[in-house]
Amino acid sequence: MINLFNKKAEPADIDYKEGAFYINGVAVSFPTSATVLYKALGKPSRSGKTRTTKTTIDCWDKLGIYADYANASHILYILLITNKHNGIQMQPKRFYNGEITVEGKPFAQQGKRSLSLGPHEIGQLVKDGKTLGYYIGWNVYYKEEVPADKYTIHPLEEEVIDFNDFGFKVSIIQELMYNKKLLQPAFDLYEFAEWYDKRKIDIEEEGYEPISEVTQYFKDLPIPKRLAREVTEIYQDGGNEIYLHLLRFGEGREDYWDIESTEDAKHFPNLKKAVLCYAKEHVIEELNEKGIKARWL
């Protein structure tokens, strides 16, 4: 029997220059999309879903590359696997065999576990002192100078949705702000903490519970009625951006944002599907009764 794990992968050299990763000559900036990745790497040899969150997995066996993501238009990173990695669900059949360079200089020779490159980052995947591979992608800690009025909420000169249930509103914000990018600015917790000047928000200290000013921001945020027709589905997942910004160090079992009432569904005439993990038991049945196909995650 041939052991595919002993065979070298086809090389996929990656060079970071001019603010982007160049993979097989294709410029990739993170967050990126599946369309861009497929252009750079070709179609994945295997795809699937994670066992717990049911997010998408793509695996390029011949390249030794792995990616998982909740949203095909908002992929944060890819993994380049160089050793057997038990922490991923779909181990590539060959190990990554390309070279990672930064402005032409090999990353492996720079003596660093990770390297921040403005909005991007390169780093090693290390467990028990053994390098399992590398990651390239979005730098979660990158901060640009925040405009003085970026998170100032101004009254809208148009009709807004009057929400009854905060958990329902949070799910709608995920769809409009992060998935469809129709509700701007996209909220960023670290950026908001830097911008907020009424007191110092210490995320590392306070991030184990909802931060009241952050919660209040989303409660006060107006959502135009004209965007209601854009919502066709709700997909709750503990890894959704909205929950990561509402609670930095959450475990996914919290009930702060549980949908308790389905009354707000009346505002969204095109809402036909809901996949939920933050909701009270009766919500699934009530949504189905309203003609919205609902199930648990």
What can you tell me about this protein's structure?
The chain contains 7 helices and 15 strands. The chain has a 7-stranded antiparallel sheet with strand order 4-5-6-7-12-11-10, with no helix packed on it. Strands 3-2-1-8-9 form a 5-stranded mixed sheet, covered by helices on one side. Strands 13-14-15 form a 3-stranded parallel sheet. The chain has helices at residues 34-41, 166-179, 189-195, 203-206, 212-220, 241-246, 281-289, and strands at 14-17, 20-23, 26-28, 46-49, 56-60, 65-69, 77-81, 100-102, 105-106, 114-117, 120-127, 130-138, 233-235, 273-276, 293-296. It folds into 2 domains: 4-138, no CATH class; 166-296, no CATH class. The protein is globular and about 55 Å long. It has 297 residues and is of the alpha+beta class. The longest helix is centred in the middle third of the chain and has 14 residues, at 166-179. A hairpin with a 2-residue loop joins β8 (100-102) and β9 (105-106). It holds the Pfam family DUF7738.
Please indicate the percent range of residues in DSSP E strands (runs of 2 or more).
15-25%
Task: Summarize the amount of helix as a percent range.
Answer: 10-25%
Radius of gyration over all CA atoms, rounded = 21 Å
Number of domains: 2
N-to-C order of helices and strands: EEEHEEEEEEEEEHHHHEHEHE
User: In which order are the strands of the major sheet placed?
Assistant: 4-5-6-7-12-11-10
The overall pLDDT, averaged over residues, is 93
**Which term fits the overall shape?**
globular
Assembly annotation: single chain
Structural class comes to alpha+beta
Number of helical segments with 4 or more residues = 7
